[in-house]
Design a protein that fits this description.
histidine biosynthesis; alpha+beta; binds manganese (II) ion; Ribosomal Protein S5, domain 2
Amino acid sequence: MNGCVGCFCAPGAAALPLPSRNARGPVCAAKTWQRKQAGASRARRANVVCAVAGNGSSGYVAPAENRVAQVARTTNETEVSVSVNLDGTGKCDVDTGIGFLDHMLNQLSSHGLLDLNIRARGDYHIDDHHTNEDVGITLGMAIAKALGDKKGIRRFGHFIAPLDEALVEVVLDFSGRPHLEYGLKIPTERIGKFDTQLVREFYSAVAGNAQITIHVRQLSGINSHHIVEASFKAFARAMRMALELDPRRLGGIPSSKGVLTDAQGLEQAKTQSMNH
Ligand SMILES: [Mn+2]
């Protein structure tokens, strides 16, 4: 018996006894399966195009309700307001008074497809510490508020982003359990005027207030600006993955416990953050 027409299976191996109606010769089981898959994936692509027109993320499922929130937070040290749309298109309008932080928030918005509007003013005459941290706290609170009970989300997200020589991995879980494992080794104390110790403070504030477990791991990197920016790009894409809806979840809460928010923990985080 001859081998299958159109693939390289061994002559006679698993060949169907009769050629199919459209085939010009005998067809092996593998080829039949491939042809079925090709037809199915053409059909899938057509559906997805209808479902995601204008969004551009394959498999994107729009939520039934808008996932948006606004949070304003004022202390003796800072005044911060954040608006966020978790299902945005990457529209970003931020002015925190800290240039490098604005640059990083633009990465988060653009690559996470979050619409962000952030205004902050703080006690810069001391340093940028309070303002940087309070932007992270308020952003975390806004994300948690927009997300609500987390019904239907993918929950986990991960991404490895390069920026030239720098390569940074971010893995996160919207677990309701705030935790930060921070592995950036930034070689300089400053990027322009920005104190590089503030990167950790920012991630910690977001993790605490959005109740996310975040692991940030540096795989390579020499230039401080590249390392931090790669981390924000990875963070953004990981957030996008985790926050998008899983159509197979059918709107359920992605936890075997059935709950992913810790109201008491959230209150504690807010109280702690007010006492910094
Ligand atoms: Mn840059």
